[in-house]
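On clarity, I found the account of how folds are encoded harder to follow than it need be. What matters is that the chain and its backbone geometry are given together, residue for residue. The format is easy to grasp once an entry is in front of the reader. For illustration, here is how one protein appears when written out as sequence plus structure tokens.
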Amino acid sequence: GPANSTREVLAKLAAFNAKATFFVIGSQALEYPDTIAEITSAGHGLGNHTWNHKDLTVLATDDVASQLTRTAEVANTGACMRPPYGAIDAKSGAVSEQLNLQPIMWTAQAYDWKSTATPAQIARDLKAQTAPGSVLLLHDGGGQRTATLQALDELLPYWAQQGYELRAIEACVA
């Protein structure tokens, strides 16, 4: 299940003393509280990724607020959120601001959530997009994550060799 993928990611990160930010879906956080505790006790960031991954731009203001507040209550997320699909508009941005949640976007991704993604493609795409200050997007839930886990076996040593320090997004560390 999703908790197993997350635990594998945590182990791989620990082996390289790397920190990350986990943007959690509230309904999943409710189901796997031990995994949430493992993420925070290991010093990683915890961000809000809504209650059930709805596109915030099509929801009413109250529903956007509910998606974010319910998740924050369950997971004690830091002061940041990542909108599903990267979809944010003036309304959902304003709600985030009212809730003191900074929207976080990414600068590099490998579409690892696609079922056709291979470990080699994921690693190649992220290597090509990595630069100082990059915000790298990978997924530990939402489906079969074998390719992502295998890509990390190549990426983590590569980033270490290149001298990159992987850190959690500061706003997301509670």
Notes: The first strand starts at residue 21 and ends at 24. Residues 61 and 115 are 33 Å apart (CA to CA).
